Amino acid sequence: MKKLSILLSLTVLTFSCKQYTKPADRKSTTKKEHSLTSDFDTATIKKHLYTLASDDMQGRATGTPGIEKAAQYIENEFKKIGLSYYDTLTSYRQNFEERNIKMFNVVGVLEGKSKKDEYVIVSAHYDHLEMLKEGEGDRIYNGANDDASGVTGVIALAEYFKNKGTNERSIVFVCFTAEEMGLIGSKYFGKGINANKFVAGINLELIGKEPKTGPKTAWLTGFDRSDFGKIIQKNLEGTGYKLYPDPYPKYNLFFRSDNASLARLGVPSHTFSTTPIDTDPDYHKVTDEAETLDVNVLTETIKAVAIGTSSIINGKDTPTRVTIK
Ligand SMILES: [Zn+2]
Fold it and tell me: Which domains, from first to last, does the chain contain?
């Protein structure tokens, strides 16, 4: 009951905030930005996170009613933002079957202004883990940080870039399924693309906790595998936000999230993360709840990704390709 009332009040808050954050109003009233978060509505970000990580979604395991609810939420947001369907799809769902489970990625597109055929992918995985079959107390793996935080980022960035209207390149927003089963959704997506048309991959994983690199920082997997990270660092100069190379090289994280499925095809596709995963008590635990995240960290990171990737989105920078031996 408590969670329900929190959600309801958040919804009301979000609706009332919306009146003040219409893009048209923003242009005429925005002063010089002092905060990285000023273009993003924290209440909306909180609503996405708390909804996707709610007990109602039952951990969003692939093939369950819980993940269906999550998909409907994402589709509804994509529709409100005004994203188009991808390629030949007739809905936001890219359906397929694997291991006898019907599953689907959720995909929406913001068409590029002048470089329509050059794609930048913005992604996160919307699946998580099965509920514990038995036991006392909390049995739901909410996957708030892993990866409701990233999906929140995808939705928020879709709205941001739609409002901004400066995407010379097409942006493909993808919420991948079955990442936790072995990057299945992203592998399927990768099979259907002409990788040469994909100039960059921006993947978001575990972006809701302060990293060991300190406040207002994030780290990037596979930093040295292309100059993508250097481009981001250049764009973040003067913002007070810093991007570092992945501090856990031994964990091989570059190959442990959906960015890898595209990187194997040559796409400079990297994962942004903030969480100190070596000491995080909630990673792949039932305690990965929305309440354990810092919504300000999440919001600032999403904003940093928006600013950091801007020159790739607007077609000025093209990161070098990745080669994997
Ligand atoms: Zn994950």
Answer: 2-17+36-313 (3.40.630.10)
Q: Is the peptide bond before 117 cis (omega within 30 degrees of 0)?
A: no
Average pLDDT over residues 252-257: 96
d(CA 15, CA 268) in angstroms, rounded, equals: 38
CB neighbourhood size of 324 (10 A)? 12
Residue 293 alpha carbon to ligand 1 centre in Å: 15
pLDDT digits (tens, 9 = 90+) for 226-243: 999 999 999 999 999 999
Closest by CA position to 52, among listed 321, 322, 320, 293:
293
In this predicted model, what pLDDT tens digit does every residue of 169-207 receive, in sequence order?
999 999 999 999 999 999 999 999 999 999 999 999 999
Which DSSP symbol is given to 22?
-
- 104 contacts 94 by C-beta, under 8 angstroms: yes
Q: Residues with Cβ < 8 Å from 178, sequence gap 6 or more?
A: 62, 98, 101, 103, 125, 127, 184, 185
Q: If pLDDT is split at 50, 70 and 90, which confidence band does 35 have?
A: low
Q: Check pLDDT > 90 for residue 33.
A: no
Please provide the size of the chain in residues: 325
- What's the 61 CA to ligand 1 centre distance in angstroms? 12
Cα–Cα–Cα angle for 38, 41, 47, nearest 5°?
155
The CA 290 to ligand 1 mean position distance, Å, reads 15
Annotate 37-91 with DSSP letters as a single string: TTTS-HHHHHHHHHHHTSGGGTT--TTSHHHHHHHHHHHHHHHHHTPBPPTT-SS
Both tokens of 9, joined, read 């009040």
Residue 130, phi-psi category: left (phi > 0), alpha (psi -120 to 50), beta (remainder) = beta
From the CA of 69, how far away is ligand 1's center (Å)? 19
Structure token pair of residue 316: 């000025």
Beta carbons within 8 Å of 185's beta carbon, 6+ residues apart? 103, 105, 125, 127, 176, 177, 178, 179, 258
Please tell me the predicted confidence (pLDDT) of residue 37.
Answer: 60
